[in-house]
Design goal:
There is one protein chain. The relative contact order is 0.06. The protein has two domains: about 1-50, no CATH class; about 55-115. The chain is elongated and about 60 Å long. The chain is mostly helical. About 75% of the residues lie in helices and about 0% in strands.
Length: about 120
């Protein structure tokens, strides 16, 4: 199960690398009008289209952004909720069935729902 999930993760990562474009202008599924409107929107909120140079001020911006801290808080709180339940479920399935791989198989659908 561990090897299967690892291979699946690698395949999704490779597919994402080839499917997701680097900039909105390289997106094949957007029409020229949509790209123009997207550029207008991006220039309006002053975020830019592509930036390949890292500056120390970017790190300061990241650490001072309240939205980043809220996303971190949400991720931590959801993790605190999900992981203890996962451990408890695996233990209860192991006590009930105790068939090795069956424990992981029974626990997988609930974990997929949480994704």
């Amino acid at each position: 199960m561990f090897i299967f999930m690892g291979i699946l993760t690698i395949l999704i990562g490779v597919a994402t690398f080839f499917v997701i474009p680097d900039t909105p202008m390289q997106a094949k599924w957007l029409s020229d009008n949509e790209k123009t409107e997207l550029l207008r929107h991006v220039s309006g909120n002053l975020t830019g289209v592509s930036n390949s140079h890292f500056k120390l001020s970017h790190l300061g911006e990241l650490l001072s952004d309240i939205q980043i801290w809220l996303m971190i808080l949400i991720t931590v709180l959801v993790s605190f909720q999900i992981f203890p339940l996962s451990w408890w479920q695996a233990m209860s399935v192991r006590v009930t069935f105790y068939k090795g791989d069956l424990v992981a198989l029974v626990a997988t659908p609930r974990r997929l729902v949480h994704c």
